[in-house]
Amino acid sequence: MARIALRGSRPGVVLPVTLALAAVLAACSSAPPPASSTPAPTPIVTPNPHLADPATAQDVFNGLGRAGLRMTPNTATAGLAGDAIVTRINATYLGWPLDVTQFRTSADLAKAAKWEAGEAPGRGEPPFALAGANILVSWGPYGVGVKPAKPDEHKTVALEALVTALDDLLSPLRTRTIVPVEVAAAPVAPKPAGSKAPKATAAP
In the Cβ-directed half-sphere of 42, how many Cα atoms lie within 13 Å? Predict the structure, then answer.
């Protein structure tokens, strides 16, 4: 223990001062520590829902469910060995049959669905057919010789949700529908020099 004598005190009287007190005084006189910097927030990455080509019917069906479509699965059938169709999921969407058909390749689908984008369906065909990558989705009732049914107000809203979800999963889409629908425009191949440039229009 250190001892110091104070001036003016009686001779021989000393006051004890501990080294710990000196250390506390020294600490109080030091500058406060700098405030810690706040780390930058980690950015949220939104997953890309677009599926690779070839896609599976199950992945497309699951993707439609994640998009909020309320579908009831009914049956699933597998194609024969060597057949162009791998599997087909039969479901119900807002009271109408909805089929998700998986072809082996996009080329196989193109051979099976030779219709042009925006073409209207004929008798005996479903009112809505949407093709993307190797997947064909059809929605609505159909029968031999029966004209495709047009959707009511509720089914029109449901159609918009279906097209939006499929556009995210399988764009670009080819559509064959009884009423016009809007989808992302497919890339146009460049024309030879001197040919007339095509007009950019939204696919029906």
Answer: 3
Phi, psi for residue 131 in degrees, rounded to 5: -120, 135
3-class DSSP state of 25:
helix
58-61, long-range: CB < 8 A, 24+ apart: 58/87, 58/89, 60/100, 60/102, 60/135, 60/137, 60/166, 60/169, 60/170, 61/89, 61/91, 61/100
Give me the sign of the Cα torsion angle 48, 131, 160, 59.
Answer: negative
Q: What single-letter DSSP state applies at residue 14?
A: -
- Work out the angle between the directed axes of helices 153-170 and 57-66 (0-180°, nearest 10): 120
Residue 202 DSSP code: -
- Check: pTM over 0.85? Answer yes or no: no
Out of 56-60, 104-108, 181-185, pick the least confident. 181-185
What number is the average pLDDT over the span 38-63?
81
Mean pLDDT of 186-202: 42
- Coil, strand or helix: which one is 155? helix
How far apart CA 129 and CA 140 sit, in angstroms, is 9
